[in-house]
Amino acid sequence: MLPNSKRSQSEIVGFAVIIVIVSVIGLIFLGFSIGRGDETKKTSAEISDFLQASMYHTTNCTTSYIPDYKSIQDLIKSCYRNENCINLDKMACNALKEDYSKIVKESFQVSETAKNKAYKLNVYYEDLEIEGKEYIMNFTEGKFNNCSREAGASQEIFMDNGNLNVELGICYG
């Protein structure tokens, strides 16, 4: 039989070993749960960052004078106001659809074998006083079926009486 002090030391060492094992198992489970949740948040953050950055892309459309070329954000406003690109001899909405669809298409390449299976982009006006949405443009590439997960984000452009909203959703395979 061990003296009391030796037996107490053995029990303390055993207790410390059990605490370390439980802590390691807890950290492993925590790592798995954070890893899973972080992936979805990261994807939505990437889409949000893309939308914010794309608002500042300069187009080749001007509605007033050269060289006052519109950003995507300003072109969305011009499209809502039914303005014309004076240097391109086309409506701002047509220039917006051409330029923005090209940016999205190059950024989120879609195919059946790629990571991105489909995307959809909606631009609409939402009045602060009147309920409802007035769709300005939308385009889609790919099909939203058999998605392992979907993610999306939106960007608001403030106007006098309401907001212009740009929403982008992506289907991942």
Question: What do these coordinates show?
Answer:
By secondary structure, the chain is α+β, with helices and mostly antiparallel strands. It has a single domain, classed as Ribosomal protein S3 C-terminal domain. Helices cover 44% and strands 27% of the residues. It has three helices and six strands. It has helices spanning 4-54, 72-80, 92-107; strands at 84-85, 90-91, 116-127, 133-142, 149-158, 162-172. The protein has a four-stranded antiparallel beta sheet with strand order 4-3-6-5. Helix 2 (72-80) packs antiparallel against helix 3.
Characteristic terms for this protein:
Ribosomal protein S3 C-terminal domain; 3 helices; 173 residues; two-stranded antiparallel ribbon; alpha+beta; four-stranded antiparallel β-sheet
